[in-house]
Automatic annotation (TrEMBL):
Name the record gives this protein: Aryl-alcohol oxidase-like protein
Residues annotated to bind FAD: V112, V260, P574, Q575
Boundaries of every Glucose-methanol-choline oxidoreductase N-terminal domain copy: 300-314
Keywords of this entry: FAD, Flavoprotein, Signal
């Protein structure tokens, strides 16, 4: 009897996908596929590839399991965002940002199974159809168009009722939703704030259109946000894809606490990269694993370009200056980094908001206890944002004179997100009493582009991250416009009897100059970096990966599947687009290797 079957009789789980916490525990060094990073995209790819029982998949993740002492910060919807700065965050920091008055800002990324999908704010927004159509145009591959991706969109996500079964009729469109493992839902607890947002829309439908389902391909207007929450728990890539695969299959292994330090070049021309070098810390022993088919890099917009450059794949001169042997000269690795900004403005509320609840530790503890026992209550049904709006600059805006950076005329330049409490900007002192509401203004279509570079040849030193925020007049001008547009929105009669005085710093925003100064003082990242390994047309010398996501420059055996491939900042929120790209990527890989 094969050993595995014997175990199956005794101790079934041991025969299923194994989880290892150190490289020396693995008994095999050869797999068909090696997926680098158990993040948002990596979990999808690993899960889909392992559907075929004839292939063996190894997933290598630098971070930790998602059942550690920080698990509540992952699982409890109400605590979304609280994983930042803990053991499940890489804790990166940007360079001093000239556009942000010289501030260096924290740059969180998930260091845990599920990657950033385990620490993000859970907003599920696919963006406008034009975003995908632009991706298809930029890559020359119609397979990336909105219409042609529908199958993968439906494979990814499934809309479910909020935990309390509140009727969500009219708040989303069932026709826009599929049958995938990732769960999404609208809030279980709409607030008075949200009712006032909806009232403003019905009073001014021309100016502020209601969009019943922001995930229908029409990404403009206002509506109910869908969050990656189901049954009162965060639905991360790990929970939706990786755990079910590990729990039911024998052909997938996961190696945690282990960083891929570089790809090793083999083959006559030295351009095949199907082996990976790993280590648990800077001084630790190095190990090697080999993929007989492909290595899939899903280490994210920071990790992926870092690994490529450590492997000699990137801008030749820069790598040689650090003492790294250049293998493939691809100047766009790490170039083009784009991200979006968020800026909070706050008002006093004349009715009770979540501020009262949040300043009452007994109430908060009771809610957390209720979640722990029953996965119900306010902690189960609400993240930070219930309602949101995507808007454009006026068509005659001088900011659009030199071109429109949005994906098309139905794509947003900026966004409002409504929060039922005081959302402080980073390091901004928050009032301890009173009831407050906030609106976060995000820049959707930045034109600033920065870069990611290696600090040294050590894989364990954080790279140099420069998103170059607000380095164009379009970006800062759009934010100034957005703040004024927000004040106009709040001047509608629906807000009478609800909105009180603005917070003093907001009350002082009387001129464009004052708004610009406020933005440069307080804006931070909305945590959506992309484009550090961007896709481009087959014949295009620029770019890092081909339309099928295989590495360019004559390299063999490596595909990049994560947020780094997007050529432009994605409209809205990137996780949905990352999931969709990963679903199609897995299908492309299966096609390449004739796997079902
Ligand atoms: C705090 C926060 C809030 C956000 N809020 C939202 C939101 O509300 N909605 C939304 O759509 N998007 C949001 N985002 C962005 C979104 O989560 C990301 O764009 C998306 O998850 C990125 O997916 P990815 O697969 O590219 O990378 P990730 O999910 O980050 O996965 C990369 C994985 O690779 C691992 N890794 C990296 N380097 C190595 C290495 N050398 N060796 C081994 N493993 C490695 C990492 O540990 C990680 O697990 C947020 C992000 C953050 C950080
Ligand atoms: C935590 O999760 C890991 C990975 O899924 C698993 O191997 C381990 O057994 C879990 N530990 C506990 C205490 O459940
Ligand atoms: C991030 O910082 C926190 C707080 O200092 C620390 O506990 C955690 O270990 C750090 N994360 C990593 C991956 O080092
Ligand atoms: C919601 O509906 C589901 C499925 O019908 C049911 O199992 C659950 O108990 C309901 N929850 C509440 C709070 O009514
Ligand atoms: C959990 O639900 C049960 C049954 O409805 C209820 O009796 C109990 O009080 C709840 N627990 C908490 C902590 O709210």
């Amino acid at each position: 009897m094969p050993l595995c079957l014997l175990f199956l009789l005794l101790l079934a789980p041991h025969c299923l996908g194994s989880v290892f916490t150190a490289p020396e525990q693995l008994t095999s060094t050869k797999y068909d596929f090696i997926v680098v990073g158990a993040g948002t995209a990596g979990c999808v790819v690993a899960s889909r590839l392992s559907e075929n029982p004839t292939v063996k998949v190894l997933v290598i993740e630098a971070g930790v399991a998602d059942n550690t002492t920080e698990a509540d910060l992952i699982n409890i919807p109400f605590l979304a965002g609280q994983g930042i700065g803990t053991t499940i965050d890489w804790n990166y920091t940007t360079t001093n940002q000239a556009g942000l008055n010289g501030r260096a800002i924290p740059y969180p990324r998930g260091f845990v199974m599920g990657g950033s999908s385990s620490i993000n704010s859970m907003i599920y927004f696919r963006g406008p159809s034009e975003d995908f159509d632009r991706l298809a145009a930029a890559s020359g591959d119609p397979g990336w168009s909105w219409e042609n991706l529908q199958r993968f969109i439906f494979m990814n996500e499934r809309h479910v009722a909020p935990w309390n079964n509140r009727s969500n009729a009219g708040e989303y469109d069932p026709r826009a939703h599929g049958h995938g493992p990732l769960l999404s839902s609208v809030t279980a607890d709409p607030f008075e704030l949200d009712r006032r947002v909806i009232q403003t829309l019905s009073d001014h439908p021309e100016k502020y259109p209601f969009n019943m389902d922001l995930n229908s391909g029409n990404g403009l207007g206002f509506g109910w946000i869908q969050s990656t929450v189901g049954n009162g728990v965060r639905s991360s890539a790990s929970r939706a894809y990786l755990h079910p695969a590990l729990d039911s299959r024998t052909n997938i292994d996961l190696l945690l606490h282990t960083q891929v330090t570089r790809l090793i070049s083999t083959g006559a021309a030295g351009s095949t990269f199907t082996s990976v070098e790993v280590a648990q810390s800077a001084g630790a022993t190095k190990f090697e694993f080999t993929a007989t088919k492909e290595v899939i890099l899903s280490a994210g917009s920071i990790g992926t370009p870092q690994i490529l450059m450590l492997s000699g794949i990137g801008p030749k001169n820069e790598l040689e200056a650090l003492g790294i042997i250049s293998r493939i000269d691809l100047p766009d690795v790490g170039a083009n980094l784009q991200d979006q900004t968020i800026l909070s403005l706050q008002w006093e509320a004349k009715v009770e908001t979540l501020s009262s609840f949040l300043s009452d530790p007994a109430a908060v503890n009771a809610a957390l206890a209720q979640w722990t026992e029953n996965k119900t209550g306010i902690a189960a049904g609400t993240s930070l944002v219930n309602t949101i709006g995507f808007l454009r600059l006026p068509e005659d805006s001088p900011l659009l004179k030199s071109g429109d950076p949005a994906a098309g005329s139905n794509s947003a330049h900026f966004e409002f997100a409504f929060l039922n409490t005081f959302l402080p900007n980073a390091d901004q002192p928050a009032p301890l009493t009173g009831n407050w509401v906030s609106a976060a203004v995000t820049l959707q279509s930045p034109t600033s582009r920065g870069s990611l570079k290696l600090r040294s040849r050590s894989a364990f030193e954080h790279p140099i991250i420069d998103p170059a925020f607000y380095t164009t007049s379009f970006d800062i001008g759009t934010v100034v416009h957005a703040v004024k547009a927000l004040r106009e929105f709040f001047s509608a009669s629906a807000w009478d009897g609800f909105l009180g005085s603005p917070f003093p710093a907001v009350a002082a925003l009387n001129t464009d100059e004052a708004i610009e100064a406020y933005a440069r003082t307080w804006a931070t990242t909305v945590k959506h970096p992309v484009s550090t390994a961007k896709i481009s047309k087959i014949a295009d010398k620029a770019g890092v990966v081909s339309p099928n996501l295989l590495l360019k420059g004559g390299a063999n055996g490596v595909r990049v599947v994560d947020a780094s491939i997007f050529p432009f900042a994605v409209a809205g929120y990137p996780q949905a687009e990352v999931y969709i790209v990963a679903e199609r990527a897995a299908a492309l890989i299966k096609e390449t290797w004739s796997l079902k």
